[in-house]
């Protein structure tokens, strides 16, 4: 989950209250305080609330939660003066585009940092590491509309951000730090996405890097924002960014987007979505009966628009920046937050049933304790993945024991994982900005032939990672679990030949360990040596 750094001066100014009150109350809106420093506070917001990934969004929510400013936030949007056209070719590469202009921005070093941090956190939270959503923020004064979103040959040259010399798009993918990190998102296409102005100046090479011409500084006052991607999360990300800037007094302006498939769009669309909630739904979920007036009050405290239509029904206007409201259950959850979990009366259940530890829990506890003692941090990745991640990126052949998702909502979540290691490598890829070494493990579920099993896996990344290191970890784990074992030469293609071994217990293969193959490391865009192991623990569960 993203950790947001909030400067007290900025937070108090935008919130209208003191830092002590904020520190005391902010956990109740769905956050954990990571650390409290003299000049700032680090807060970990839950991943379902990307609108809180900035000081502006957090301040907006806190003003409502503290009854300083309740109800729906409304933003004036000026008529469009800027337009952008979308080419036919780009629809096959990165088809979704959202744009806006924001004028009269008054930047400081802290507000620029807040915007850049919001951009990167949205890339992770909504964008799946830029694959589904990538955001470009540009100084509008250095380019001339109308703009064009199109596909060009990889030999096209421009000066990328943080560089002074022109590079071809191919060279950017091979040499620029951002290019090498995100090259896999566009490398397979014959042409690459680009946003140009009327003089052929480059604004952006999405989802890789901006042009240096539109760099944002403290002198920037007018912004052009582009959000490209593979789905409608593009529009949510756009709404979050522009409303965050509007919270500082900036003026949002529409952009006219001309598309070959659906005609003309006027963006951003900040119109709230309307839902209808009943008292009965609230009572059924919360277990307590609230009056219509109380329900409306708590919804407004959580920054929704709300009004009673009759004695049973409330009309709720959901802000355009709230990506998490998918069902009325989500509204009821926010009502509970507004009311205060601490104010909900505790009651003893009418029925009592004794429980006992599940056999899996009885195994998990000591295994987790061993791994933590060996210096590893536990992680809990998603169990849904894709064939590309599960097999292709690991250099493993696809097997017939895969369980497919019948109606996947994303090409990244089409199967249930059959192994844990790919998920751990994905986490390493998402945390390359963290210091090394990084050592993580998971005790989790896999599904093979529609049968759920329990595995333990771990990875370690740092420049000196080697076979001896992971062998020692496996040996310590097996010794502490009091499992006599033997190792034999492995043929697992995910690991480097000569530096890999299979683990056997009582003649049965339990798993594998070794140094990950360089091709696997490159497939996950990792820059250092990685070692790891994975063991099947099904036979150990009592």
UniProtKB/TrEMBL annotation:
Molecular function GO terms recorded: ATP binding; magnesium ion binding; phenylalanine-tRNA ligase activity; RNA binding
Cellular component GO terms, alphabetical: phenylalanine-tRNA ligase complex
Cofactor section: Mg(2+)
Catalytic reactions of this protein: tRNA(Phe) + L-phenylalanine + ATP = L-phenylalanyl-tRNA(Phe) + AMP + diphosphate + H(+)
GO terms under biological process: phenylalanyl-tRNA aminoacylation
PANTHER family: PHENYLALANINE--TRNA LIGASE BETA SUBUNIT, PHENYLALANYL-TRNA SYNTHETASE BETA CHAIN AND LEUCINE-RICH REPEAT-CONTAINING PROTEIN 47
Family affiliation: Belongs to the phenylalanyl-tRNA synthetase beta subunit family. Type 2 subfamily.
Protein name (Swiss-Prot/TrEMBL): Phenylalanine--tRNA ligase beta subunit
Protein's organism: Methanosarcina spelaei
């Amino acid at each position: 989950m993203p950790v947001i750094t909030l400067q007290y001066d900025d937070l108090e100014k935008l919130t209208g209250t003191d830092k002590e009150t904020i520190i005391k109350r902010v956990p109740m809106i769905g956050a954990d305080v990571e650390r409290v420093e003299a000049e700032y506070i680090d807060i970990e917001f839950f991943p379902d609330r990307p609108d809180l990934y900035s000081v502006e969004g957090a301040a907006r929510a806190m003003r409502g939660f503290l009854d300083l400013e309740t109800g729906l936030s409304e933003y004036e949007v000026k008529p469009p003066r800027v337009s952008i056209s979308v080419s036919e070719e780009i629809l096959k590469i990165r088809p979704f585009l959202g744009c806006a202009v924001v004028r009269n921005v008054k930047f400081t070093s802290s507000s620029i940092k807040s915007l850049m941090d919001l951009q990167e956190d949205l890339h992770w939270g909504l964008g799946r590491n830029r694959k589904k959503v990538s955001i470009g923020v540009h100084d509008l004064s250095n380019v001339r509309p109308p703009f064009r979103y199109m596909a060009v040959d990889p030999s096209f040259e421009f000066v990328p951000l943080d560089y002074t010399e022109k590079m071809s798009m191919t060279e950017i993918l091979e040499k620029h730090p951002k290019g090498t990190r995100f090259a896999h998102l566009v490398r397979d296409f014959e042409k690459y996405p680009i946003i140009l102005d009327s003089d052929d100046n480059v604004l952006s090479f999405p989802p890789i890097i901006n042009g240096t011409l539109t760099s944002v500084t403290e002198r920037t006052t007018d912004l052009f924002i582009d959000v490209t991607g593979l789905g409608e999360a593009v529009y949510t990300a756009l709404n979050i960014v522009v409303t965050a800037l509007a919270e500082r007094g900036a003026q949002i302006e529409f952009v006219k987007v001309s598309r070959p498939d659906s005609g003309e769009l006027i963006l951003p669309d900040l119109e709230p979505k309307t839902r209808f909630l009943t008292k009965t739904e609230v009572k059924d979920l919360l277990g307590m009966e609230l009056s219509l007036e109380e329900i409306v009050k708590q919804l407004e405290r959580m920054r929704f628009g709300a009004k009673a239509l009759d004695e049973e029904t409330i009309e709720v206007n959901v802000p355009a920046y709230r990506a998490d409201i998918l069902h009325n259950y989500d509204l009821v959850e926010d009502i509970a937050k507004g009311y205060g979990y601490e104010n909900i009366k505790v009651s003893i259940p009418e029925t009592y049933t004794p429980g006992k530890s599940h056999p899996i829990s009885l195994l998990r506890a000591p295994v987790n304790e061993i791994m933590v003692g060996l210096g590893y941090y536990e992680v809990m990745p998603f169990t849904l993945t894709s064939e590309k991640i599960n097999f292709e990126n690991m250099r493993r052949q696809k097997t017939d024991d895969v369980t497919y998702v019948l109606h996947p909502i994303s090409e990244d979540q089409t199967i249930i994982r059959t192994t844990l290691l790919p998920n751990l490598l994905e986490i390493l890829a998402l945390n390359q900005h963290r210091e090394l070494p990084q050592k993580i493990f998971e005790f989790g579920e896999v599904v093979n032939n529609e049968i759920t099993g329990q595995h333990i896996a771990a990875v370690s990344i740092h420049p000196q990672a080697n076979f001896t290191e992971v062998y020692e970890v496996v040996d310590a784990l097996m010794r502490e679990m009091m499992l006599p074992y033997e190792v034999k030469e492995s043929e697992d293609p995910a690991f480097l030949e000569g530096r890999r071994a299979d683990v056997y217990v009582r003649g049965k293969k339990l798993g594998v360990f070794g140094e990950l193959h360089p091709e696997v490391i490159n497939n996950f865009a990792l820059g250092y040596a990685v070692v790891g192991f994975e063991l099947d623990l099904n036979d150990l569960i009592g």
